[in-house]
Design a protein that fits this description.
It is a single chain. The protein is α/β, with parallel strands linked by helices. The chain is built from 24 helices and nine strands. Among the domains are: about 100 residues, Alpha-helical ferredoxin (Fumarate Reductase Iron-sulfur Protein, Chain B, domain 2, Orthogonal Bundle), CATH 1.10.1060.10; about 110 residues, Rossmann fold (3-Layer(aba) Sandwich). It has a five-stranded mixed β-sheet. The chain has a four-stranded parallel β-sheet with strand order 7-6-8-9, sandwiched between helices. β8, α23 and β9 form a beta-alpha-beta unit.
Length: about 425
């Protein structure tokens, strides 16, 4: 009965974790899709290897510390979920396990400081904007910075867009077909505010009234996927309260955020507001899936472009949204191509490219090479982390513009700037 006792100590998530562990038959179908198995070639750095390690920890055969390195190496991309013939919910398992393990382990001081800095800045746009500006000034002295800060400086943009808060209301154009609430996001507001504006404009052109609720903040996805459960619950409850209202859907344009918000029932399992979290999660939808389901109104004919579409992991694997973005781009008159190894993560994975920069950089270079091999006019993706990562690793190559799917659609409608090939 030791197995049951250890799982019970996890709390309400124990049943979901036990189910995921028991479902794995160790067939190996996940191995070719796992980015760390691909780059490291070690069983312990594969999904089935990590499942064995987590099982051993929960049964008391290993300590959290003994299993920490391979599990920290996991990007949480959930490519293994798409590949698994047995339906193992690895995403639920790794998220719940990290919440269990984090308070039971001791991290080195430098690592704690880095995680603390990330947690204090990224979810808060004003702080993140200030930190980004300071980092841009310090970048020429990057070699003098502490080792763990150098990757953060390397990923900063060369120019920071001006702050452009989204309007509280964007009216529908023509007859109103739907009314939605839009998540503004955190880092995206600082690094690429145009994505939010493009989202509102494209939705409006499709007859959708867009509300940006006040009082919203970080959705908590970064904290949740990093094992910081207390902070994640605080962010989740604030988000649920902010989005209370009569909406047809809660729309996101960042794959990681949408995935995290759909995981609120797991995060708040056993809590008094679990049912509320369940109802909330059921209304969360990515903008591409929402437009596809609504019935996309194609823009006027534009110059057809060859667009390489990158599948953001938390859109493709976690939310199972793969064809909708491609259909939207094709409906706008473009040729959509898929690169080799489309299922492999680009290495962004929330804050992974900050905490595991070597592996992330290897995956980023690999992804950039596969995308460029399609000879695209543009590259499209549905997540700010992926866009930042891909742009960083495209930098040494001839310029190919990388845009969010809704930015391409917005330009096709005649939005902020014309749509044309890069070069």
């Amino acid at each position: 009965m030791q197995h049951e006792i250890q799982l019970e100590s996890v709390g309400p998530k124990g049943e979901a974790m036990a189910g995921a562990i028991a479902s794995c038959v160790h067939c190996g179908f996940c191995l070719p899709t796992c980015p760390t198995y691909l780059t490291m070639g070690e069983e312990e750095n594969s999904p089935r290897g990590r499942i064995v390690l987590m099982k051993e920890v929960l049964e008391g055969g290993l300590t959290v510390e003994q299993a920490s390195s391979p599990i920290d190496n996991c990007l949480g991309c959930q490519a293994c979920v798409s590949a698994c013939p047995s339906g193992v919910e690895y995403g639920d398992l790794i998220t719940a396990y990290r919440a269990y393990a984090e308070p039971r382990r001791s991290r080195p001081l430098a690592e704690r400081a880095q995680r603390g800095l990330i947690g204090a800045t990224l979810p808060r746009p004003r702080r993140f904007r200030f930190a980004t500006r300071m980092g841009m000034l310090a970048r020429p002295l990057a070699r003098l910075a502490p080792t763990r800060l150098r990757p953060m400086l390397g990923l900063l943009p060369t120019n920071l867009p001006r702050a452009r808060p989204l309007p509280a209301l964007t009216p529908a154009e023509g007859p109103r077909r739907a009314r939605v609430a839009l998540l503004a996001g955190c880092a995206q507001q600082v690094l690429a505010p145009e994505i939010g504006w493009a989202t509102a404009r494209v939705l409006a052109r499709n007859g959708v009234e867009v509300i940006v609720p006040g009082g919203q903040g970080c959705c908590g996805a970064l904290a949740m996927h990093g094992g910081r459960e207390r902070a994640a619950r605080r962010f989740a409850r604030r988000t649920i309260a902010a989005f209370a209202g009569d909406f047809d859907a809660i729309v996101t344009n960042a794959a990681g955020c949408g995935s995290g918000m759909r995981e609120y029932p797991l995060l708040l399992a056993g809590e008094p507001d679990e049912a509320e979290a369940q109802a909330f999660a059921g209304r969360v939808v990515d903008v591409s899936a929402f437009l596809d389901d609504l019935g996309f109104l194609p823009p006027p004919a534009t110059q057809p472009l060859r667009i390489a579409y990158h599948d953001a992991c938390h859109l493709s694997h976690a939310q199972r949204v793969r064809e909708a973005p491609r259909r939207l781009l094709a409906a706008a008159g473009h040729e959509v191509v898929t690169p080799d190894e489309a299922e492999i993560c680009c290495g962004s994975a929330g804050t992974y490219n900050l905490e595991r920069p070597e592996t992330a950089a290897e995956l980023g270079r690999r992804k950039a090479e596969r995308l460029l091999a399609t000879e695209p006019d543009l590259i499209a993706a549905g997540n700010i982390g992926c866009l930042t990562q891909i742009r960083t690793h495209l930098a040494p190559s001839p310029g190919v513009e990388t845009l969010h799917t809704v930015e391409i659609l917005d330009r096709a409608y005649g939005g902020s700037r014309p749509l044309a090939p890069s070069g």
